[in-house]
Amino acid sequence: MLQPQNYPRFIGKALLLEPDPFVEMVDDDNPWIEGLFLCACIGVLVAVAQLIGNLLLTAALPPSEALLNTVLQTLRQGTAGGETLIEIENALRSGWPLLLAYSGYNTVGFSLLTLATTPLGLIGQWLFFGLASHLLARAAGGQGTLPQTLGAVALSNAPRLLYLFTMIPFVSVASVLIHVWGILIAFRGLEVAHELPPGPAALVAVGTYLLLLLVSAVAAMAFGALLLIAGGGL
Amino acid sequence: MNIRHWLPSPQKLSDAVQLRASGFTETSMRQSLGMVFILGLLAGFLPFLVNWELAASAGTALPLARLGAQASLLQQTPLNYIVTLFNPVHLGELFQLIAGLPQPLPGWLAAFISALGEWVNWPLRWLTLWIVYGALVMVCNSVLGAKCRLQPFFAATGFASAPLLLIGLSPIPCFGRICSVVGVIWALVVYTRANEEVTRLPRLRSLAAVLLPLLFVLIVTLSAIALFALFVFLFAASI
Question: How far is A75 from chain B (nearest CA, A)?
Answer without folding.
Answer: 7
